[in-house]
Write a structure and sequence with these properties.
mainly beta, seven-stranded mixed β-sheet
Length: about 130
């Protein structure tokens, strides 16, 4: 069982930045594909960003249309941590953000919730107008 713990959420003004972190409790972290999703009040959970397992010579990241060019997903395998750098935040980015993980033998990224095996508890991000 892999435990995922998010941190870094909070309250920020429109146009501001936040960096979310998600630490995983597995010694084989580099073999996991990782993702970030979010859920706003009254809405379904939405895909935000994904990154494939380490080792690919090509970029293996992907973003939802609403965050492309503003958010960046990255990973630090030495720290067993995946990050989500969020810039130019908008009120519509307000949501609970969840990280997710899936052990993968390939370098692909995953954008659909059912593909992931492990989830964090979520961290609240609130963007004030």
């Amino acid at each position: 069982q892999v435990q995922l713990v998010e941190s870094g959420g909070g309250l920020v003004q429109t146009g501001g930045s936040l960096r979310l972190s998600c630490e995983a409790s597995t010694p084989t972290f580099s073999n996991y594909a990782l993702g970030w999703f979010r859920q706003a009040p009254g809405k379904e959970r939405e895909f935000v960003a994904a990154i494939g397992r380490s080792g690919s010579v090509l970029s293996n990241t992907y973003y939802g249309d609403s965050v492309k060019g503003r958010f960046t997903i990255s990973r630090d395998n030495d720290k067993n941590t995946v990050f989500l750098q969020m810039n130019s935040l908008k009120p519509e980015d307000t949501a609970v953000y969840y990280c997710s993980a899936k052990y993968s033998s390939s370098y692909v990224y995953y954008t659909r919730e059912p593909m992931y095996d492990y989830w964090g508890q979520g961290t609240q991000v609130t963007v004030s107008s």
